[in-house]
Model the fold of this input.
Amino acid sequence: MKNYFKMNYMESFLLIVEFSTINFLNIFFKKMFISMHLPASIMFFLLYIIPFSILFLFIFYQSRKKNLKIDLPIKRSHWSIYIIILFMMFGMVILNDFFSSFIPRKGPILGNLYKEIELFLHKEMKHPIAFFSTTILVAPFCEEILFRGVILNGMLKNKIHPIKAVLFSSFLFGMAHMNPWQFVGGMFIGSFIGFIFYTTSSIVNCILLHMINNMVAVFTMFFLSKYHYNKIYSFSERNNIYYWSFLILGINILLLGSLLMLKKKKDLEIQTEI
Done:
């Protein structure tokens, strides 16, 4: 009988260091693709998928070499679970926007970095099919397999306390995005999705929530007018009624949803024991 693939703190950290190192290879791949005269839209997709493919092959090779089984739970949940987690996702988006708004978008260092990120995104948006398919479909699948399916699942299999495992895997998730705004967002969204993985034991739910998060992010970034978004949905102005009402609503949704999810997990465990 095969043993399960397990991970500790150092192994998880080193895995993300390896992933970041592999990402630097994209410099050479990009030059190669340019010399091959590949369309920019195809290049964007390939440069995203190649590092994940290399890392997944490495993980698969190591697990086969050590005769370990990587357990990726793909079971579907009851329809009531999806209603709860979708409402919770709404609350998490509100809190994520709130905390991310504290990171300055102006200044000699962060201001220039934020402008570079915006320019990159608007440049890639010129190829909408590749951008949307990669951001909304491919990215959630690859990132959830790595951070929840391999790292978080591996830490839980290693008997690391769920809270510590969720927080540490979320820290690595935020760190891998390599900018302060997505680091904060990665920490919050990653912790929420990690909690859902722990309570539902399904990577499918994690991928679904990640897709919704990216869809909302892209929609608010490119399809809502800047004025409308900042005045109503953003927390850039903290002295208006929307700030307090949305924040309180988001906190209550998350608290209530978390209690319901923990109760459902406990009920399921009791049914399993019986």
